[in-house]
Write a structure and sequence with these properties.
Oligomer: single chain
GO molecular function, one term: NAD+ kinase activity
Largest sheet: 10 strands, mixed
Order of helices and strands: EHHHEEHEHEEEEEEHEEEEEE
InterPro entries: ATP-NAD_kinase_PpnK-typ_C, NAD/diacylglycerol_kinase_sf
Number of strands: 16
Shape: globular
Protein name: NAD kinase
Number of helices: 6
Radius of gyration: 21 Å
CATH class of the largest domain: Mainly Beta
């Protein structure tokens, strides 16, 4: 790390900002909410807390350090430097949004609304940032998942990668496990999750089907995969519906006109896969380095 590292504060527009952008003025937004039995004061208070947390984060950066700031919608276009320290102010999902654009930079998660957020990845209060900036070597690594298409497209995610039909119709593909088990399937899609994602979407899938498969812990390198609603037919099977990946990949060869692969629930940032293409999903070579 250079003697004057750069601290990049990542934040997102609040729900109050989004409401004003939609309705034009505070008065119109307040009228819209009042007609639905809601009070804009709640959103204003939360907006103020977030602004105070972002301001406190900026103020905690030592005066001789460089600094930058980026809003969530611009993260994909932002150039992170190797020696940056990334400070994420917001919800856990914002850390996941940022993680796929990083390459080993330490991340500090700041929670602007303690008690409201789950606080799994944003575990620190704004007042602690000054000390944390001098302890960026104390990190825990969170495994990430990668989808790689045979045409060179690559997608990274912190929680999970989903492969399925873009409009949630039946996805048709041939699935190949790391043990070379092969099955043609028709399903609602395939989910491959990390230990971080094991508390979310894949956990609900596991609970619903009463799966005996042990979910990975947050810092485990092991991944798990689930096929959602596999449909047996004369041409498709439903015997390979879950498993583990520990260094190997799960391969899917597309048998639909079009499938997509997206990560962390962000459908707007997806790989497009056409008939005959193969996508491999497994552990990513990079990990999220979360300052603890």
């Amino acid at each position: 790390m250079s003697q004057t590292p750069r601290v990049v504060v990542v934040h997102r527009r609040t729900e109050y900002d989004e409401l004003i952008a939609t309705h034009g003025t505070r008065g119109q937004a307040a009228f819209f909410l009042r007609g639905r039995g809601r009070d804009i004061a709640e959103l204003e208070e939360r907006d103020q807390r977030t602004r105070q947390a972002v301001a406190a984060a900026a103020a905690a950066v030592p005066v001789d350090w460089r600094r930058g700031s980026v809003e969530r919608s611009d993260v994909a276009r932002f150039l992170f430097a190797p020696d940056d320290v990334v400070v994420v102010v917001g919800q856990d999902g914002l850390v996941a949004n940022v993680a796929k654009y990083l390459d080993g930079q330490p991340v500090i998660g700041i929670d602007p609304e303690p008690g409201r957020n789950a606080g799994v990845l944003v575990t620190h209060a704004p007042r602690d940032l000054g000390d944390l900036l001098h302890a960026v070597g104390q990190v825990t690594e969170r495994t990430m998942v990668r989808a790689t298409a045979d045409d060179g497209q690559v997608l990274l995610a912190l929680n999970e990668v989903f492969v399925g039909h873009p409009s949630h119709q039946t996805a048709r593909y041939e699935l190949r496990t790391p043990h070379d088990q092969v099955e043609a399937q028709a399903s609602s899609g395939v989910l491959v999750a990390t230990g971080t994602g094991a508390t979310g979407w894949c956990r609900s899938v596991a609970r619903e089907r009463h799966s005996p498969l042990a979910l990975p812990a947050p810092t485990e390198r092991r991944l798990v995969w689930y096929v959602r609603e596999a449909w047996p037919s004369p041409a498709t099977g439903a015997s390979l519906t879950e498993g583990e990946l520990d260094g190997s990949d799960l391969a899917l060869t597309v048998a639909s006109d079009r499938l997509v692969a997206f990560g962390d629930g962000i459908e707007s940032d997806a790989l497009t896969l056409t008939w005959g293409q193969t996508v491999r999903v497994g552990r990513a070579p990079t990990a999220l380095r979360l300052v603890v």
